[in-house]
């Protein structure tokens, strides 16, 4: 496991994570949150919409940001806040890249500030925002 203190975090630190959004991802996410929306689960319905097919849940993509932040900052970080602006759909089968970059920190308060972006393989941004995290690992842990 990765343990990072706020003092070790540097402005410009970055984590990039790429994956393909699968049918299984969307179905499992639907089961976890209990949202049975046809835009996500019914191909015939979704094909008739402006998206032309089933799309991933927006908050599912937000969850991928959380996973990327954990890879960036380690197990000693926790969300304080996250803004998200949804810019476009993610269809099943799309390759996405999550990019998280540290833009600032407040060592006294143990806070780290990160820009968060999700883009598709063609480079189009589908989600962007900012995160604030609190670092609770101190020197000597574990």
TrEMBL record:
<dbReference type="InterPro" id="IPR029069">
    <property type="entry name" value="HotDog_dom_sf"/>
</dbReference>
<protein>
    <submittedName>
        <fullName>Unannotated protein</fullName>
    </submittedName>
</protein>
<dbReference type="InterPro" id="IPR002539">
    <property type="entry name" value="MaoC-like_dom"/>
</dbReference>
<feature type="domain" description="MaoC-like">
    <location>
        <begin position="18"/>
        <end position="119"/>
    </location>
</feature>
<dbReference type="GO" id="GO:0006633">
    <property type="term" value="P:fatty acid biosynthetic process"/>
</dbReference>
<dbReference type="GO" id="GO:0019171">
    <property type="term" value="F:(3R)-hydroxyacyl-[acyl-carrier-protein] dehydratase activity"/>
</dbReference>
<dbReference type="InterPro" id="IPR050965">
    <property type="entry name" value="UPF0336/Enoyl-CoA_hydratase"/>
</dbReference>
<dbReference type="Pfam" id="PF01575">
    <property type="entry name" value="MaoC_dehydratas"/>
</dbReference>
């Amino acid at each position: 496991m990765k343990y990072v203190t706020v003092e070790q975090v540097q402005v410009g630190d970055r984590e990039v994570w790429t994956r393909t959004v699968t049918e299984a991802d969307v179905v499992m996410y639907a089961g976890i949150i209990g949202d049975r929306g046809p835009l996500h689960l019914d191909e015939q319905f979704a094909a008739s919409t402006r998206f032309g097919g089933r799309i991933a849940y927006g908050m599912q993509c937000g969850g991928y940001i959380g996973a990327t932040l954990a890879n960036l900052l380690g197990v000693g970080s926790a969300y304080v806040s996250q803004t998200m602006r949804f810019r476009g759909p993610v269809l099943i089968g799309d390759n996405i890249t999550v990019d998280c970059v540290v833009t600032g920190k407040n060592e006294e308060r143990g806070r780290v500030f990160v820009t968060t972006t999700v883009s598709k393989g063609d480079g189009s941004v589908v989600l962007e925002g900012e995160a604030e995290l609190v670092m609770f690992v101190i020197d000597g842990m574990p």
